[in-house]
Amino acid sequence: MPERYNSGKIELMSKGVISLQDAEKVYETGELKVPALLDINLEVTKGEMLAIVGPSGSGKSTLMNIIGLLDRPTKGKYFLEGQEITLSMSDRKLAKLRANTMGFIFQSFNLLPRLTAVENVMLPSLYSKTVAKNRRKERAEEILENVGLGHRLKHKPTELSGGEKQRVAIARALMNEPTILLADEPTGNLDSKSGHAIIKILKELREHEDKTVLVVTHDENIRKECQKSIELFDGRIK
Amino acid sequence: MYNLLKSALKSIWNNKVRSLLTVLGIVIGVASVTVLVSLGQGLKTDVSSMIEGLGTNVLVVVSGQIDTENPNQQQSMNPSNFISNDILSIDDVYTIQDTAGVASVSPMTLVAGKPVVRDTDHQASPMVMGVYTDFLDTSQVVDIETGEMFTANDQNAVIIGHGLKEELFGEDEAVGETVTIGDQELEIIAVLAEPTTTSLFASEFNYLAAIPYDKAKQLNDNEDSVFRIILKADDGTDVPDLQNRLTEAIKANHEGQEDFTVFTQQDLLEVFNDFLSMATAMVSAIAAISLIVGGIGIMNIMLVTVTERTKEIGIRKAVGASRTDILWQFLVESVVITLIGGAIGLGVSFIGAIIIANETPIQPVISWDIILLAIAISIGIGVVFGIWPALNAARKDPIEALRHE
């Protein structure tokens, strides 16, 4: 059973890859205030694999979106690799950080249906300078081979199985050599065998490439595979 | 940029039918504007060649005041004055004859309501005009094809235009034949050459029966009436100066009233030219409305596209696209659509110009200016009508967009 991960109060500056301090997310719809996340203190160090579990509506996705820079906390501080993510940061700056440090893996794969596997994998490189232009295609093919899809390069998502689609999505997430992988229910749409293969890939990425991996999941088995886990309930870490 | 273009072309290709229909509005708009502007330019080129073909030393006096400086002013041209018979008189002709620098002069006197009759089967109602013997030399519009111009001694002579000859005589010989105008029997002593189409008074001279001035006066119940006066300046005369001196001299005849205009033929052509420019601009403006309609079509389809591709926008943002990236993506797409439309429109207008050139006397001119204008219009429409959908796309919240199905 992995230990419960709840760091409590942390010093202002942190050596963690991800550090949230007293973070809150409250949605305001007119008079009504709906808290999605409250009192979140979280420290993730490099190379960790962290499971985020909890029932539906407990704020797992909101937490993931904040960490992934798609959303911003309404209160509290967020340090990403030691850099504070402030409210005044421009969209351009956030997009750049997202392109270079984050790799998203979604439950429903979210591949662009009209692009081939290689083109889908190359997509993030359009928005980053990490990979030189003339290296992009080559690199995309390499990653696809690494996830076992060397024979599916020119296939479109509709021609791929669920497990294959998710492996394309992982390859895409790796394209810009990010330090953090964010997987939101990555096995939710897969049978247990393909799901297991996906988790195996994520674990290998953590072990061999020192990626920090966050996995939102319902699945107790996946939770057990992770070194650490936090459980959310009603927007708080339990 | 290459990637943007590639993805734009791809998404346009993926919606072939829709893109084609959307583009149609721009095609029609660009084609109609291009054809109309090129028509205008073609007509202007014609007018310019008329100016070049004319003697610069020919002046015309007409009744009515026409402000050649400001031809657009409404009161500047009163058409009823322009055709009036009672403003100019034979005295004005004498005055002009006495003015220094005038080489030759001829009045033009209309003989109204008198047909030219060959026999009962062959008659016509051309413009019958009483003129002096120098008329053809003075006007320098057409030469004589066969025969001789009448002299002061020929009182019962008539010369006829090429078109009139064909109507009355067909292929038959006309010179030496007799025709009747009113109660006068006149001998045809000359037929005019066919005027070139670029000549300013071409139709007038093609369908003309010119008779000696005194004969015209006789047919007009012995009244002196002058419709127009045409004159030629001496070589080396300062034409604008002569124009001013003539105006002053004739004004003295008219109790100081300037109810007539002395034109150089160039003045007249400039008026035509200005009118032509104005007409071209107005017609093109109407055609431009179709471009606006086309643009609204583009905006509509781009809004639909943005909505359809909400998920894609979310994905692109998640993998690192900024708002600016998304804005450019959709803006480039709409500009590519309008550019394709513009290119097809230009192609259509080239075909249209060829058809017009073959079927009508007008030669439309599609210059580089027009081509660049069409391209600029296409890009402009793409930007103006694409910016709002593109902004819409750029502003989408990535989380909401990712949830969109």
How many domains of chain B? The number is 2
- Head-to-tail CA distance between termini of chain A: 16 Å
Tertiary shape of chain A: globular
Low-confidence stretches of chain A: 1-14
Order of helices and strands of chain A: EEEEHEEHEHHHEHEHEE
Largest sheet of chain B: 12 strands, mixed
Ends apart, CA distance between termini of chain B: 29 Å
The structure class of chain B reads: alpha+beta
Into which percentage range does the β-strand content of chain B fall? 15-25%
**Structural class of chain A, please?**
alpha/beta
Number of strand segments of chain A: 11
At CATH level 3, the topology of chain A is Rossmann fold
> What is the architecture of chain A at the second tier of CATH?
3-Layer(aba) Sandwich
| Cα shape of chain B | elongated
Strand residue percentage of chain A: 25-35%
Radius of gyration of chain B: 32 Å
Return the average pLDDT of chain A rounded to an integer.
89
- Count of discrete alpha- or pi-helical segments spanning 4 or more residues of chain A: 7
Q: Could you name the CATH class of chain A?
A: Alpha Beta
Order of helices and strands of chain B: HHEHHEEEEHEEHEEHEHEHEHHHHH
